[in-house]
Amino acid sequence: MAELELLVALNMIPYLGPVRIRGLLNCFNTYSDFMNATRERLLSVPEVTPKICDIILEFRKKVNPFDEIERIKKLGAKIITIEDEEYPRLLAEIYDPPVVLYVLGEASVLNMESIAIVGTRKPTSYGQKIAEQIAGELAEFNINVVSGMARGIDSFAHKGALKAGGPTTAVLGCGIDVVYPLENHELMKKIVKKGCVITSFPANSKPLPSNFPARNRIISGMTRGTLVVEAAEKSGALITADFALEQGRDVFAVPGSVFSPYSRGTHKLIKQGAKLVECANDILEELNLRKNDSAEIKEPDLTLEESEVLDMIDYTPVNIEFIVQKTNKPPGEINAVITRLQLKNMITLLPGGYVMKI
Amino acid sequence: MRAAIKNQDFDFPIKRITLNLAPADIKKEGPHFDFPIALGILAATEQVPASALEGYAIVGELSLDGRVRPINGILPMAIEVKQKALKGIVVPLENAEEAAVIKGIEVIGVKSLKEAVEYFKGEFKPDDIASKVQDAFSLDFEGDFSEVKGQEVIKRALEIAAAGHHNLIMVGPPGSGKTMIAKRIPTILPSMTFEESLELTKIYSIAGLLAGKSSLIKTRPFRAPHHSITPVGLVGGGRIPRPGEVSLAHHGVLFLDELPEFSKEILELLREPLEEGKITISRMNATVTYPASFMLVAAMNPCPCGYFQDPFHECSCPPHKVHSYLSKISGPLLDRIDMQVGVLPVAFSDLEKVNSTDSATIRNRVELARKLQLMRYKGQNIFYNSQLTPAMVNKYCKLGKAEKLLMKEAFEKLKLSARAHNKILKVARTIADLDQSENIKEIHLAEALQFRNLDKYFQYLKV
């Protein structure tokens, strides 16, 4: 069993990935042993090339694991290593699990049944709603909803889970003491109360673009499956889905309108064999976790006028102007009907003047 | 002066000339003193009977050959002449129509110094300007709402805005016709009263924008300054403060396209006129207050590329850009805008068959609604629903039981902000007025709840 200081130190040296660290750990057990190792001894590790050796020699003097551990303690966070009980079991199974995880909050949720929900940073109202809804349903079933706390779908997934009072885990692409994006600092506090925030990056790490694929690998790696809610053709969410496949985990995708550019990525996944998901039950079924059938929602009473207007509204956005032209009624009346339908939870108003069924 | 007098075949005295411009404590500026000074010299040298000049105001600029050139700001001077109960005013011929708007004073339009002298000797009879002025009273607009095909929803929103004098903002992607629609707003505003017309013409007279146009301005102004406008251009200013765009839009529409592109400083300046209906400009030489009571109509894209939250186009803006774009217009300015409407392009295939309401029909409804408001607010020092203070909202926008319930439900479900509350009530009041209804009914309130479209975008930002 390797010393905590050694693991932390290795994790802090740039360009040293989980695989190289694993190689080094085969040869070194203690921090002092590693610090005193000569160039020749380092080079004898098969994973260490001369270039990497130079980097190690340069940085091992600069990093100070004692300070780092002290600092994490002060933040109220803790460091768990791959050999700890609390380390997510599923994550340990992947090819390149991080050797240490920084955890802020309740570490016990990491070994609950977990599902990842990811998607675009610029979701449509449809995506926001479904992400929140499915996350809520999963949370009600006591499933840990894992996401990246980014803008958009990620945030809505966390919110949905929190609203349902369930656990949720945010995996960061920066140091545990860095809030990114900044507007999520309230959300982060809430997540820490109900679940936890984790990262593999040392304290103070900036959210560099190159960090995010590594973060995505943890998201997919620690969960049974990854649900992609909305993703444009080129979206980071698709990278997460790719990782999930590589790691042998399930990929789920929420369909959208074929006209919506934000559903292209998810449709591509479905074409490639991802399971189409409409509600949390679809995921639970696949993972052999059952959910009781909830009572059907009953139709609210509608006036003749309201149902006439509702008939023209679809699950894709419709311009209100279109309804006015078709019904040939004064726009004021139509607007009033739309407000009522909104209040009856039948439709949603989108920015710009579109309405859509929900 | 010497040249002008000589060129008109008068003698310029070869003596010491002392000129007293009283009162001495006001700094006198402008070109319009030449002509009266020249006449003064002629009167002093008895080339024109001094007694005949008594009781006349004389303004104008002299060219070297003695012709009288037009000047700016005639109308306020004519008003002053009337107030001081003088006999009449001698003005450059080009300005005569403008001055003749004021009834009860003699307006003498002259082409040259000579003509003026002849007039005072009783040898020249000027044209009767006053009779000409009368027939100029007609309404002509550029464009009509019937030309805007489809877009009935926006037209309805503008009808409400015009009826209650509500400030309004249109949000929509590029190419949805925001500017085209906005340009036609004056066509649905009620026609101006004589007093309003006079007040507006005064401003234009001072700004020197009347040249070529005769007499009174009858149509409500539509001003659309570009977002590169300077503070001085917007609110007025200069060494001798001139009226700016906010004053030129008095009694009309100030249209700000691409609102977030205006600098914060510029938008801040709008607060005083929006609140007070006037603008005070202080400069070293003078402090001037110009009226500036306008209806603010703004248009904007939801983000720099225009497609944020558009279901059919991908938005190419990074989220933080959208955030900073939208947050430029938050707070105090938004507080003064009662209505937010989404505008979407109308599909081309729909354009042929649709029916289109025309401006005259809408204007009639607007005028009726405004009449109701004028009656209701008699003696309250306000004229429109948009001017209601919170206390007045409680008094005039009472809701019944059913309406209160609707409002409560709407606030909970539609996540409306607290600041939206009174605006919705004011707009509902106007909708009820358009319906000639004494009380705000449920249907009025339900419609009013639709004019919070921009808030939607802000809700999406709060991730």
From TrEMBL, chain A:
Gene3D superfamilies, per this entry? 3.40.50.450, Winged helix-like DNA-binding domain superfamily/Winged helix DNA-binding domain
Tell me the Gene Ontology biological-process terms attached to this UniProt entry: DNA-mediated transformation
Describe the location of the DprA winged helix domain by residue ranges: 299-353
Annotated ranges, domain Smf/DprA SLOG: 78-287
Annotated InterPro entries = DprA, DprA_WH, DrpA_SLOG, RuvA_2-like, WH-like_DNA-bd_sf
Domain of life, source organism: Bacteria
What family does the database annotate? Belongs to the DprA/Smf family.
Name of protein: Uncharacterized protein
Name the source organism: Fervidicola ferrireducens
From TrEMBL, chain B:
Q: Which domain of life is it from?
A: Bacteria
Q: Where does the record place the AAA+ ATPase domain?
A: 164-347
Return one GO MF term. ATP binding
| Membrane-spanning intervals of the chain | none
Write the record's keywords in alphabetical order, separated by commas.
ATP-binding, Nucleotide-binding
InterPro entries the UniProt entry points to: AAA+_ATPase, CHLI-like, MCM_dom, Mg_chelat-rel, Mg_chelat-rel_C, Mg_chelatse_chII-like_cat_dom, P-loop_NTPase, Ribosomal_Su5_D2-typ_SF
Q: Which SMART domains match?
A: AAA
- Please give the family membership noted in the entry: Belongs to the Mg-chelatase subunits D/I family. ComM subfamily.
The protein's name: Competence protein ComM
